[in-house]
Amino acid sequence: MKICLVTPAPTYSRKGNRVTALRWARILRELDHRVSIVEEYQGERCDLMVALHARRSHASVVRFRGEHPELPLILALTGTDLYGDIHTDASAQESLEMADRFILLQPAGIQELAEHLRNKAWVIYQSVTAPPGKFSPKKNIFELCVLGHLRSVKDPFQTAMAVRQLPPSSRIRVVHVGGALTNDMKTAADAEASTNPRYRWLGELPRWRALRVLARSRVLVLTSRMEGGANAVSEAIACSIPVISSRISGSIGLLGEDYLGYFPVGDTRTLTDLLVRLETDAAFYEALKTWCERLKPIVDPNRECQSWKQLLQDL
Asked: Residue 45 is part of which domain span?
């Protein structure tokens, strides 16, 4: 088949939507399909369209459905779709009605869909290949990794605020990888790095380098207020790195309801306490690490490839 993959993230972007689109294109090509990635559908000939983002890809969805009512249309739902736009935005809601199937990155998101739409949902976990080689954490510090662009929805400086409250004896340090998407965010990150001795901001790095930073860390900290299914969590699982996450649906769908590494959204004091426990309670740390290691099969590339194969057969 010829497949048109629509993503609102531009070619140069390293945002999650672009990372997902590139990985899916590679998988679909491995399944012997021809794939073109575009920011907006312009009437190109294809046999199937896959669109990321119900609201931002709405124009593409409308045009494709209008010109090709007989062809299949798959809509991948992002975090801002599931936990925002599909509840409030008319264009996002129209996109849902037009799609034949929805891709969700974790199963907890199905509950956000209206009852009559849930039979269209198809969960495809994001796969990750861990970087080659053996990575050992630094011995003199307890390094935490924050992996994500500086956007308000990710509450990007909460980990920095949390480590400010640590006792002087703590060896915890934070390494933050992610681009500043506004000048204000860059200014804030520079200011935090210059005044907080426990915080380093590395800015945006190529993905292979970001994964190596994660792989040498002891913990990934995710402070997002909303995620459809964070790439960073899947990457941590692939690298056998335990995760500390805000208790949001997108993380619960990946890590499980009973995972012990959650803190309430926006609760910096509880996050600080959790980090202290991680550093000082070896049994707690090992329990989180073992839990995440057991989840490795969900991020296996072969599993994601088979999920796509089954979805296309189903259509």
From this structure: 2-127+300-314
Residue 141 has pLDDT above 90, yes or no: yes
Whether 271 and 207 share a structural domain: yes
205: in domain: yes
User: Is 284 in the same domain as 307?
Assistant: no
Residue 77 included in any domain: yes
Residue 136 inside a domain? The answer is: no
Answer yes or no: is pLDDT of 20 > 70: yes
Give the tens place of pLDDT for each residue, 167-198: 999 999 999 999 998 999 999 999 999 999 99
Is it the case that residue 227 has pLDDT exceeding 60?
yes
The total number of structural domains that make up the chain: 2
pLDDT digits (tens, 9 = 90+) for 242-279: 999 999 999 999 999 999 999 999 999 999 999 999 99
77 and 146 housed in the same domain:
no
Q: What is the CATH number of the domain that holds 282?
A: 3.40.50.2000
For every residue of the chain, DSSP letters joined together read -EEEEE-SS-TT--SHHHHHHHHHHHHHHHTT-EEEEESS--S---SEEEEE-TTTTHHHHHHHHHH-TTS-EEEE--HHIIIIIHHH-HHHHHHHHH-SEEEESSGGGGGGS-GGGGGGEEE-PPP-PPPSS-----SSSEEEEEES-B-GGG-TTHHHHHHHTS-TT--EEEEEE--BSSHHHHHHHHHHHHH-TTEEEEE---HHHHHHHHHHSSEEEE--S--SS-HHHHHHHHTT--EEEES-HHHHHHH-TT-S-EE-TT-HHHHHHHHHHHHH-HHHHHHHHHHHHHTGGGG-HHHHHHHHHHHHHH-
Q: Give yes or no: residues 41 and 153 share one domain.
A: no
pTM, two decimal places: 0.91
